[in-house]
Fold this sequence. Notes:
The complex is a heterodimer.
Chain A (H helix, E strand, L loop, with lengths): L1 H7 L11 H7 L4 H31 L9 H4 L11 H37 L7 H22 L28 H30 L12 H32 L10 E2 L2 E2 L7 H35 L6 H15 L14 H13 L1 H15 L8 H23 L2 H7 L3 H31 L1 E2 L2 H27 L19 H31 L1 E2 L62 H14 L10
Helix pairs in contact in A: 3-5, 3-6, 3-17, 5-6, 5-7, 5-8, 5-9, 5-15, 6-7, 7-8, 8-9, 8-10, 9-10, 9-13, 9-15, 10-12, 12-13, 13-15, 13-16, 15-16, 16-17
Chain B lengths: L1 H7 L10 H29 L11 H24 L3 H31 L8 H32 L9 H26 L2
GO molecular function (chain B): cytochrome-c oxidase activity
Membrane topology (chain B): Multi-pass membrane protein
Organism (chain B): Jiulongibacter sediminis
Amino acid sequence: MATVAAAHSDHAHDEHHDLGFIRSYIFSEDHKVIAKQYLISGIIWAIIGGLMSLVFRLQLGFPDMDLSWLKPILGEWVNESGKLDANFYLALVTMHGTIMVFFVLTAGLSGTFSNFLIPLQIGARDMASGFMNMLSYWFFFISSVIMFWSIFIETGPAGGGWVIYPPLSALAEANPGSGTGMTLWLVSMALFIVSSLLGGINYVTTVINLRTKGMTFDKMPLTIWAFTFTAILGILSFPVLLSAALLLIFDRSFGTSFYLSDIYINGQALPNQGGSPILFQHLFWFLGHPEVYIVILPALGLTSEIIATNSRKPIFGYKAMIFSMAGIMFLAFIVWAHHMFMTGMNPFLGSVFMLLTLIIAVPSAVKAFNYITTLWKGNIVFTPAMLFAIGLVSFFVSGGLTGIILGNSALDIQLHDTYFVVAHFHLVMGSAAFFGMIAGVYHWFPKMFGKMMNKTLGYVHFWASIIGVYLVFFPMHYIGIAGFPRRYYQWSGFEAFNTYADLNAFISVAAILTFGAQLIFVFNFIYSIFWGKKASANPWKSNTLEWTTPVNPGHGNWPGEIPTVYRWPYDYSKPGSESDFIPQNIPFSATPESNLPEENELIEEEKDIENIEYNYNIPD
Amino acid sequence: MTAENNITENVKPVLSINKWKFITWLFIITIVMLFASQTSAYLVRRAEGNWTEFEMPSIFYWSTSVLIVSSVLMFLAQRAAKSDDFGKLKTYIAGAFGFGTAFLVMQYIGWTQLQETGIYLKGNPSGSFLYILTGLHAFHLISGLVVLIFALVAAFRTRIHSKNLIQIEVCSTYWHFLDILWVYLFVFLLYFR
Lengths: 620, 193
């Protein structure tokens, strides 16, 4: 606990720190810098993951295509006749899933916005422990380097799908990717889990302990609620993935038989006896299911904030939003077996998990309705962030509906592991969370970099993306209903599937165009950092505390005292008020014209809030 | 220190719990989840049959009592720190560290005993699980010893006293937790052999 001692000397935030380039921009302990590091890493990974999907989309849409032109990049993975190596196809699918789920939508989304917004919105100088926060990023960075390295080894990266089910992933003979690639995958993920836990522990501690005067739980922005629930989900579920990975590592490298039993390779029996591959699935999905909420909840939190701000209306059902997120979080832990309906589980058990799964539709629908009712008759400002937030709601609804279908164990028998599943989770989790992340970048870019992003490019990016995403994933539902299994290299062996060849080609073209649209965003992002228009301190006329900081908040966020909070964050278009927004740090005593009767009574309490004396005997 | 904080740091935690204690508890929760998943995997696998039964190494009974003694010494050390009794603090915390190290050695002897009876890491999962569970616990105990070393050094440099208890409180919370965790694992392994 050397850091405990170190924290005692951590004082005087108002002092001018001159830390030098390395401590300020590379090994920084400032939450804003760490957030930007996560964001930029996330964007780089998203480009890599996206390009991988294009390569296998080319294979699926145009199985006869000559891919020799990709030889400079893929080398031996494209053979003499210009065909993609089938094992490498599996590796690409695996890496696309792993990168997108963990590196982009967990680290890139939670890492960026939890780090950036938690201290700014609750009114704290920084995270509870800047050092742990820095460690969290650098564990993620090492994990990234290892995963990136694994792409270039001779036997290729891991190839067992992002779920790495044993025995395929446990036996090096199963697939080239089950050798060194799988080992590197496991090492990388173990480091990633450490990074997530360090981050999550920090987020929860900060929210619980470092809120400013008056920032009671019922005045916290919904973003903060979402990040807190996400962090709790991570703290409870990532250790279980570590457990699963640990036993797999022992099976692979030390000859144990946790997941292996009765296996023959080329007629030779393996010595492993008494293991159970289903055990891995239970452990994996106990993380795996909460993981999808780790991905979507922060996006929903960002959306709540953006939609309320740009509708110029209070969020509809603030408490209902909190309780539905809490409900989703709770249910996330007791539905994992709906990924395992096809493992021969007891049908009665299946029906229990089916019931629990379908109950998730209730809090999810509450959230969707609340977004729509917040928009209803609002004075909507269509900023690019707002459009992406509305796009998220659209995906959340259209992808969520197919979740109700897949959650039924009887229907899942037909649809399991088909493209219907792929379409479902790409809409409800992938695209929705991605849109939430993009919306967040457009919305908080002025606070991150002090510049505005180009609006016109933002609109082009939005329309190309939302149309593109629907063109990619909507037809996939039909392909799934037709019975196309996922993770297949090609379907030309099945006569019946030939009728859908053109639909697959259509999806591939749409995917390429959608990816191209993202380059507009990347250009806009980089261009605006350097040459964007200068932003004002509060360009969206928003209520939350981060907009009370200077345009470029320095170390410690507020130059003077941290503002005190008197009201909830959603006082938009309040009747009687001249301005259509009243920030959280404006006391009720300053707005007698718009106060409700019960708020007038709160004026007396303002003195108490201002006079809160913290117990200085508690050192930190 | 406190006077300086009064001037420079306007915003202190709203709840009166120290952030390091809170972080420690969250960290403990992650460890609980790790072992909960391991022991439930143990139960799920055991219910499937084909499960070798064997005797627990006798030294594990002794190592359990050694760890409990270490925990008691840690408690006494914390109490000594509260009353600024530095002599006792140094004795007790060094004792806690010594008994903790002895526990690790005894666990290792336990493993050799297991191997003498023919239970190896490879083989039936019942044996493998025993190695994994004790090994994981030993790994966390080593991390606990590292935390304890820092507290030990701080105690010998008289940096732990009644006005500065955070470090020893965090250390003893983690140490007691590791003790309870072992007792849980031991009883669990005895009961579900």
